[in-house]
Design goal:
The chain has a six-stranded antiparallel sheet, with no helix packed on it. β10 and β11 form a beta hairpin. The chain has no helices and eleven strands. It has a domain of 140 residues: Sandwich (Immunoglobulin-like), CATH 2.60.40. It has 221 residues and is mostly beta strands.
Amino acid sequence: MAGALAACSPGEEAAPSDTSTDPSATSAEPSTSAPASPSPSPSDTSESAPTESESVAPTEPTEPTDEAPAPEDFSDFGTTDQTSDGWPVHGPDTYLTEVRAAAHEGYDRVVLQFRGSEPPSHDVRYVDEATGDGSGLPLDVEGETFLYVGTAIVLNPYDVGDPEDSVLTGPGDIGDATISGLFAEGPWEGHSATYIGLDRTRDFRVTTLTDPARIVVDIRR
């Protein structure tokens, strides 16, 4: 399972195939043998071809949804820091597997998805610039101001026995969202940072979801 930065995101039924049979040839000479008993008609047979209503279309696996409750009046949005109780607390051994963004009516949604069922603790707040945790150097993220989404304790895939998975780091696809930029940084000393670039300070809220583990940041337009 490789990590991916992607935009937030039905079944196809195959058409029945046409079958035909070639008519058998008939003899031109008269026959003196007793006439053969008539073949049973299709309606007389106990086995009939499957009908369209009897066919079963293959089902596709259910994808995880990002259905945190949609805001009703934005009364729970604001610009103050939103932090887990006791931040940073040690939760399940996990790592970031995907970051995605999408537009919704009146707000944009950014989803951070993690390995496992329980999300790590988080610290979400505004910062003036996006910088690397280890280097302190500026990161290439579009925006005039930035929402910092810090998570702990987050590890590298090989630290939890998944060496085939990649460390998720780099710019993300913002899809149809109106945010300015999105950047996920790989873990540093048990923490990871994701930056959401914005044109100005906007109200936001944070919710968490389980199975799979997700941190959802909704940003009012």
